[in-house]
Design goal:
There is one protein chain. It contains 6 helices and 21 strands. By secondary structure, it is α+β, with helices and mostly antiparallel strands. The chain folds into 3 domains: 88 residues, RNA Polymerase Alpha Subunit, Chain A, domain 2; 96 residues, RNA Polymerase Alpha Subunit, Chain A, domain 2, CATH 2.170.120; 76 residues, RNA Polymerase Alpha Subunit, Chain A, domain 2 (Beta Complex).
């Protein structure tokens, strides 16, 4: 009887009340959560949105031009037990492009596929996405070489030739139509010898802005640039009369000094440039006439000068 009295006294204490309350709470929690397993909602954010049936678009000559990687947030409803089994990678969100092989912008709903039939989607944010579809086109553009920098003093860039003169750009029609030029850039700062390099192609629009887009491709993507660098030298021009008119004198009055370009070992041997023999048999009242320059095969003139003006006079 003494034990029963002690138990009765203990049950009347505050500690006993708390212990009994805690045990009852656990029993209620087990009943509600495990036995009843009520439905609840959970939200999963930033689920990547995929696009299906893009191969059909490609086969029909169209292309999806959306640049942004879209995501969707979904609120899912289901039992606590089922929701505890759901992981983010198990949820598939997609937009079906079947039947949209045409040019335009379309607002299409996002379809969400859940891993268990017992679950349902209560809310999607956003509900849909605007997708833009364009016709895929290919257009040829000339390859423009842009030179930057300055060669070593006394040298000039004579000619730069790309390995391919044209490039074919393929991409969305509107984007390709915005391209103004295709450029291969070459830096010649402080060079004094020929250059052979490979450079990627860059695309510019009509505003001279660089155009980059994952849907824009080029064939080729790069070109080989062969750049001829020549030494520069200024030399006088000497007129030469033909043997039949040795009693005439010619004096150069335009371009009496010209700039020639060539390899250093060739240019160092040249001190002057002669004209081709000048005949006065066709000379009219004017004592001035043009005389073609006799330029050696292994040099060129700056700016392509090929003749000078001379003044003819008879020797007394």
């Amino acid at each position: 009887m003494e034990g029963e009295k002690q138990l009765s006294d203990f049950l009347r204490t505050d500690i006993a009340t708390r212990i009994i309350s805690f045990i009852l709470a656990i029993i209620v929690w087990i009943y509600v959560v495990i036995l009843l397993d009520p439905e609840i909602d959970i939200t999963i954010n930033d689920i990547p949105v995929l696009y299906t049936n893009t191969i059909t678009l490609t086969n029909e000559g169209y292309i999806l031009t959306n640049e942004k990687n879209d995501t969707v947030s979904v609120r899912i409803r289901g039992s606590r037990t089922m929701l505890s089994k759901v992981n983010k990678p198990d949820i598939m969100a997609f937009i079906d492009l079947n039947g949209y092989n045409q040019t335009g912008t379309f607002s299409l709903p996002i379809t969400v596929r859940l891993p268990f039939e017992e679950l349902s989607v209560v809310e999607k944010k956003p509900y849909g996405i605007n997708v833009t579809i364009d016709k895929r086109v290919t257009q040829s553009f000339p390859v423009t070489v842009e030179i930057t920098g300055t060669p070593q003093a006394g040298f000039e860039v004579y000619e730069t030739i790309p390995s391919q003169s044209t490039a074919e750009l393929t991409g969305p029609g509107d984007l390709v139509a915005s391209i103004e030029k295709v450029v291969a850039k070459l830096d010649v700062s402080n060079v004094s010898n020929d250059i052979l390099v490979t450079r990627n192609l860059t695309f510019y629009n009509t505003n001279n802005d660089i155009v980059t887009n994952k849907h824009l491709t080029s064939q080729p993507e790069s070109v080989e640039l062969r750049c001829e660098v020549l030494k520069r030298k200024t030399v006088p021009v000497k007129p030469v009369m033909d043997s039949q008119h040795s009693n005439y004198l010619a004096n150069v009055i335009t371009n009496n000094n010209i700039v020639i370009l060539g390899k250093p070992e060739v240019l160092d041997k040249i001190t002057e440039i002669y004209t081709k023999p000048i005949s006065v048999s066709d000379l009219n009242e004017s004592s001035k006439k043009s005389a073609k320059l006799d330029i050696p095969d292994d040099i060129v003139t700056l700016d392509g000068i090929s003749e000078v003006t001379v003044e003819i006079s008879r020797q007394e």
